[in-house]
Design a protein that fits this description.
Helices cover 13% and strands 24% of the residues. It is an alpha+beta fold.
């Protein structure tokens, strides 16, 4: 039925405004139905959605780009060793039919040893964020020369920079969910907690030079907009260690003002870092 004909008699200008509004709504509805997913995970990916692995990508960077738990991403794609990713490979972003997102997790091999993540550690995503106590995954062998990421119960977060908060969780573009922290360009950016660097590069659009640190099977932290990266993938870092230097948020800062995008992710989902950080 023509909605325009149903409009009660009004001035010609009023009827034209309503007709234009109706057309716009229908067009937007059509766009929404044709695509409900983007790289940033703002919407739920359709069943069977995939993404290509590009040069420099890691399992963790792909998971961060799509707000996914890296363990689920590994399980859905039958990945037991994250180092086996290759450019051109396609990864599915949703579970196979009949497989729920929090089913049993495969044996994920770390850079030095194989980590077995027991079923009882795979907490539902809506589990209260305050429940941080969990049993550590059992280790098949312990690397003698490398410290391990912090356990769930021992994480103690600290501010990565001393500058003021420019934008709180979620920031104004509604895509990069984290804090925007200010400071002089070139100032040190420090690891917020101990862990392993699982991504160091600039392959994720909107993040600039990005570091991702894995703290344990539950928590990741991400540091974006850096001027330079001072650590490499696979390197263990301590809490407070300088890992990068502050850069600037393109087009959104004064020439002498630096900015850092800081995210904390639990089971792949960004959470508000403010309650986890010490009071200033």
């Amino acid at each position: 039925m023509n909605l325009f004909l149903m409009i009660p008699p009004r001035s010609f200008r009023q009827r034209m405004r309503i007709a234009v509004l109706t057309t716009s709504i229908l067009l937007l509805a059509g766009c929404a139905s044709s695509s409900n997913f983007n790289r940033w995970g703002k919407n739920i990916p359709p069943q069977g959605a995939t993404t290509p692995v590009r040069a420099g990508d890691t399992l963790y960077s792909i998971a961060v780009a799509h707000d996914l738990d890296w363990r689920n991403l590994a399980r859905w794609n039958g990945i037991s060793d994250p180092r086996t990713l290759r450019a051109g490979q396609r990864l599915r972003l949703t579970p196979p039919v009949g497989q729920e997102s929090q089913a049993s997790v495969p044996r994920i091999q770390s850079t030095q040893s194989e980590v077995v993540i027991p079923q009882h550690l795979v907490a539902p995503r809506d589990q209260a964020a305050g429940n941080k106590q969990a049993i550590q995954p059992s280790m098949a062998s312990t690397p003698p020369q490398k410290s391990q990421p912090a356990s769930e119960g021992s994480l103690s977060w600290q501010w990565p920079v001393q500058g003021k908060v420019l934008s709180r969780f979620i920031d104004d573009n509604n895509l990069q969910k984290g804090l925007i922290l200010g400071g002089p360009i070139g100032d040190p950016v420090r690891a917020s907690a101990a862990g392993e660097v699982v991504y160091a590069g600039n392959g994720l659009p909107g993040y600039g030079n990005l570091l991702i640190i894995k703290h344990n099977s539950e928590w990741l932290s991400a540091y974006g907009y850096n001027q330079s990266l001072l650590v490499k993938e696979g390197q263990m870092v301590t809490a407070g260690q300088t890992v990068a230097t502050m850069g600037r948020r393109d087009g959104k800062a004064l020439d002498k003002t630096g900015s850092l995008l800081f995210q904390i992710r639990r089971y792949g989902k960004p959470v508000d870092p403010t309650p986890l950080l010490p009071a200033r």
